[in-house]
Specification:
Layout lengths: L5 H29 L3 H29 L19 H27 L3 H33 L10
Helix pairs in contact: 1-2, 1-3, 2-4, 3-4
């Protein structure tokens, strides 16, 4: 793989990890919706977070290649999370991961087409969605602790 191909590859990898994270958040949400198997929900949430971190790692690698082309660094957008159930937080996290995946696919295409400034813009928008997803994941984790009374992932409610 040439140095020129690396950003497109990294954006594509970030998109795949965001898609995996979205699927895991949806699975976690389903477990909270039915009101049981909180251990599996917590496991899915942890796996979603891991995929989100891998996506961020790939995005960082791609963005290093775009930095000379004017990538804006600071995230933008609202950071409030006014949702009250873990299931809904996981669904919101999934939606943001799906948006981030879509944006990284676009960034990959721009990188392949030799338009690094457009790739950088798409990547920045993806970062904003990734950040919002992480906030929803964190809020879901807080609600998990309130619901189960424990920070441990296991446990069914009596």
């Amino acid at each position: 793989m040439s140095k020129e191909d690396l950003p497109a590859f990294q954006h594509a990898a970030a998109a795949r990890h965001h898609a995996q994270a979205a699927a895991r958040h949806i699975e976690a949400s389903r477990h909270y919706q039915v009101g049981k198997d909180y251990a599996h929900a917590a496991h899915q949430a942890m796996a979603a977070r891991g995929h989100g971190l891998w996506a961020q790692n790939h995005a960082d690698n791609a963005d290093r290649a775009h930095t000379p082309h004017g990538l804006v660094g600071a995230p933008t957008g609202d950071t409030t999370v006014p949702i009250s159930t873990a299931a809904d937080h996981h669904l919101e996290a999934a939606l943001h991961h799906k948006q981030a995946a879509r944006l990284h696919v676009a960034a990959s295409k721009h990188a392949e087409d030799g338009a690094p400034h457009l790739a950088a813009e798409q990547s920045q928008a993806a970062r904003d969605h990734a950040r919002r997803s992480a906030l929803h994941g964190d809020a879901a984790a807080q609600l998990h602790i309130e619901l189960t009374g424990s920070a441990a992932p296991g446990g069914e409610l009596a």
